[in-house]
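Q: What does the assembled structure look like for these inputs?
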Amino acid sequence: MINLKQIFEPKSIAVIGASREPSKVGHAIVKNFVAGGFPGDIYPINPNATEILGLKCYKNVSSIKGKIDCAIIAIPAQFVPGALEECGKKGVRGIVLITGGFSEVGNVEGERQVAEIAKRYDLSIIGANCLGVLNPAARVDGIFLPVYKMARPRVGDIGFISQSGAVGGCIVDLAAYAGIGISKFVSYGNATVIDETHLLEYLGKDEKTRIIVMYLEGVRRGKEFIKVAKEIAKKKPIILLKAGVSKKGAEAVKSHTASLAGSAEAYRAVMKQCKIIEAKTLMELFYFAKIFDQPLPKGNRVGIVTNGGGYGVLATDAVELFELELANFSEESKKILRKNLPNYVNIRNPLDVVGDADSARYDLAINTLMEDPNVDIIVVVVLFQTVAIDSRVISVITRAADQKKKPIVVISTGGEYTEVHKRIFDSYGIPTYHSPTAALDAVQKFVWYADFLKKNKRIG
Amino acid sequence: MELLEGIATLKKYGINVVPTLLTRDLGEAKKIGTKLGFPLAIKIISPDILHKSDRGCVKLNISNVEELGKAWKGIMANAKGARIEGMLIQKMASKGIELIVGGKVDEQFGPLVLFGLGGIYVEILKDFSMRVCPISKEDALEMISEIKGLPILQGARGTKPVDLNAVADLLVKVSRLLSESKIKELDLNPVIAYEKGYVVVDVRMIE
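A:
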C-alpha cells in the first residue's frame, strides 16, 4: 500500500550513499537534514566511513537497531536493487530514490527491477531520478541541492508537485526568494512506483496544504487522475502547468475530430473538466498560486486604489481584459471619501489618491472599500517612486488584509526599492504583482474558482 | 464502418439522424422518396467509388419524382463499370446552424468528445471545446458555452437561437456511445441545429 506520510513526515531517516565529500549529493542531503534542524534520527550509511558531519555512520541499514521510516538513496544505479532489497528486509517502507540512470536513459530493465522489488516488499518509492522531498514544517529537507545555492521557502500552505527536478528546484528557489511559503514539495522523476496521482491524492488529504501546484510532463493513470483531481478541486484549488504540448504529427488520423484533438487539447479538456486552473508559464504558477491565500471573493467587482493615474487606467483595462467588473462605489463610501480626501481627488473607481498620497490616505481608501458592499476585491496599486509614499504603507495594507474580509492584491512596479517592498508583501501572504495584467489574470482565476465552489455547494 | 451501420448505431443511442435508406431499385427509390418527402439527396454506395462527388455520383436538392429518375440514371451512367451496392436516399436537412460533434480515443484519458461550429469555424479558427467521456449535461452545456462562436448559436444578427438543450443532450448521448463502444474516431459532420432539435446529416465512424 502506498504510504506517503512516512516519506513526508518521517521520524527517522537513513541516507544511503552518505558522503564525507562536500561536493557529493550524499553529503548535501545529510547536511541539509542536520542544518535544517530535523528533530528525528538521522542515519548516514556508508561502508567506508565511521562518521559524517558528527553523526555515526553505518555500513548498511540492517546494522541500524532503530526503526527507519524513510531511506534516501543516492548511490549509482547498479547498486540500487541491492540497497532496496536490504531496506525491504529491514522493514524500511518509505524510499526516496534520487539516483538516475534508469528508464530516462534507456535502462528500462533496471527500472523494472526497482518496481519489482518495491512490489515484493511493499515499498513506497519516490523517484527514480528525482530531486526529493521538502516539508519545511517538519524540517524534512531531503533535497540534494545546497542551501546556499537553492534557498528553502518558509512554511506556508502551497503544496508543490513537480515531475522535473530542474523545474522543481527553480520553483522552490524562486518561492523562497519571493517570500512564498510551501507546505510540501516533491519532485518525483520517473514515477517508478509513486506517480502524480498518488501525490495529488496525498496533498488533497494533507491538512497543511490548502493550494496544490503541479508541474507535469505527462500523466500515467489518466482516468484515475481525473477522478482524484475532480474530488480535490471541490475542496482546494489545483493549479497545473502541463509541459510538452508538442503535437504528435506522426499519428495517422482519419477523422476531422482526431486531427483537431491532439494530446495538448486532451489535457486542456481534462483541466476544464476537473476545474483545474491552467498555468501556461512557470511564472503563472506563482501568480495564480499566491492569490489563493486570500479570503474567497464574493463576486467579481473590483475596487482599485492607486497613487498613479496611468496605473488606474491600466488596471481598469486589465479588469475588462479578464472579464471582471469595475465596482460602483456605494453612496456611503463616496461620502466618506469626499469628506476625508483632498478636494483634488476624483471620487470614482479607479480611486486615484494622487501622487502625493501618503500611507494615511491609503489607509482611509482601503478601509472604506473594505466596508463597501459593492466591492468584492481590492486592488491596491502602490508606486513607490513618489516622495510621499514609504514603508509605512506596508502596515496599512497588512492590517487591512488581517481583517480577512476581502481579497487584497498589490500591484507595484519598479526597481530595487520596490522589489524589497514587494517581497515583504508576498512574505506576509499578500499577493503582489509587477503588472496590472498579471494581477488581474490571477484575480480572474480566483473569482472563477470561488464561483465554482459556490455553485458546487449549491448543487451538492 | 458502413454509413448505414453508423446511422443504426446512432439511432440506438437515441440520436436524431436525417432519414436515410438504401435501395438498388429505382421504382423503390421513388416510393421511398415520396414517403420521406422532397427535397432529397442521393449518393451511390460502391466499394470502387471513394470520392463520390468527383465521379458525379452524388445529386443534391432533388425536388420531385421526375428529377429523382433523371438523377438516378445520370449517376448510374457515371458509375458504369463499378460494383454497385445500391443508392442512398437521404432527406435533405433544412437550413440551420451547422455544428460538428466528434469523438476520439486519447491514449492517456480514453474517449474524448468534441464540439464545435461546423465549416470554417472549426477548420480555420479551431473554435471547439472538448471533454473526457463520460460527460454530464452540465459538462455539455459548459462545452457549448466555451466556444467563441457561442453568440451565433444564441441568435446573432436576427437569427433565431438554436436548441442548446437538445445539442447538450446530443453531446451526452455521443459521450455515452463513445464510452460504451470500440469506436476510435467519430465525426458527426455536419449536425444541423434548429430552433427546436437538431439532425445529424453525415457520420463517419472508425473502429
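The longest strand of chain B covers residues 97-106.
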